[in-house]
Design a protein that fits this description.
About 75% of the residues lie in helices and about 0% in strands. It is mostly helical and about 250 residues long. The chain has 12 helices and no strands. It has helices at about 5-25, 35-45, 50-60, 70-80, 85-100, 105-120, 130-145, 150-175, 180-195, 200-215, 220-230, 235-245.
């Protein structure tokens, strides 16, 4: 029986993958670029990121390789999986710069969004990279609205947006815990104004109710209470307020 060409190609690449594991990178010697590329795909499927990286780098050094856009995109993905987010972002950007009209370009745009989100640090640290990720992911979501790429980018944008809001919410908590209540009020108010779509808004309103009552701002407390119950009735802070008999 005649073997299907694609099956034969992957069977050969799989055997080379085994040999490579035993003999190191010298397995590339004498191989055509297409076979090395397929070897990289197999290494990706097995989540052997180091082998995949070496394979894609090898084909990208081959003059005239016809699948350069795909190889560079996959190299970016491999670097992303290795959590080399800065290097991954650089590869995705090269795809956009060199293959603007190629079908890989939308995936490279999402890769940049994902890499920036990957660079976002813990909320206690400086969030400059988070702010950049939120901007770029929003742009990708707009550019590819109505597609899966757009939806993925929008989901990441939402995560970055909430993280930035959480950072500001944390500032309010910092001053609240130290009994600088007027400063806490200022930060909570600013957070609500700057991040009105964030999941942290009802929590900020909840804290504003508590602070206002504590320092005797009854009119403000009533305003914050009314807004929390009207705008976020199903939220956990609203339920806590209702359970306390203040809703």
């Amino acid at each position: 029986m005649r073997t299907h060409p694609i099956i034969r190609l992957f069977t050969g690449a799989a055997a080379l993958l085994v040999l490579w594991g035993c003999g190191g990178g010298s397995a590339f010697t004498g191989m055509v670029a297409e076979d090395v590329y397929e070897l990289g795909l197999l290494a990706m499927a097995e989540e052997d990121w180091g082998k995949a990286e070496r394979a894609f780098e090898a084909v990208l050094r081959t003059a005239g390789f016809a699948r350069g856009a795909e190889a560079r995109l996959n190299l970016g993905r491999v670097l992303f999986e290795k959590k080399d987010f800065i290097l991954a972002r650089a590869e995705f950007q090269r795809v956009l710069d060199r293959y603007t009209a190629d079908t890989t370009a939308p995936y490279a745009s999402l890769g940049i969004c994902e890499s920036l989100a990957g660079e976002s640090p813990r909320v206690e640290r400086d969030q400059s990279s988070t702010a950049q990720a939120e901007i770029i992911c929003a742009q990708v979501a707009r550019d590819y609205a109505g597609t899966l790429i757009g939806l993925d980018a929008e989901a990441l944008r939402g995560e970055m947006y909430d993280k930035l809001a959480e950072k500001d919410y944390g500032r309010g908590q910092y001053y609240q815990r130290r009994n600088f209540q007027d400063s806490a009020i200022q930060y909570y108010r600013s957070m609500i104004e700057d991040w009105p779509q964030s999941k942290w808004v009802p929590w900020a309103l909840y804290q504003l109710v508590a602070i206002s009552e504590k320092i005797g701002y009854e009119d403000d407390a009533e305003e914050f209470r009314r807004r929390l119950m009207a705008e976020f009735p199903a939220s956990e802070p609203a339920k806590l307020l209702a359970a306390s008999g203040e809703g």
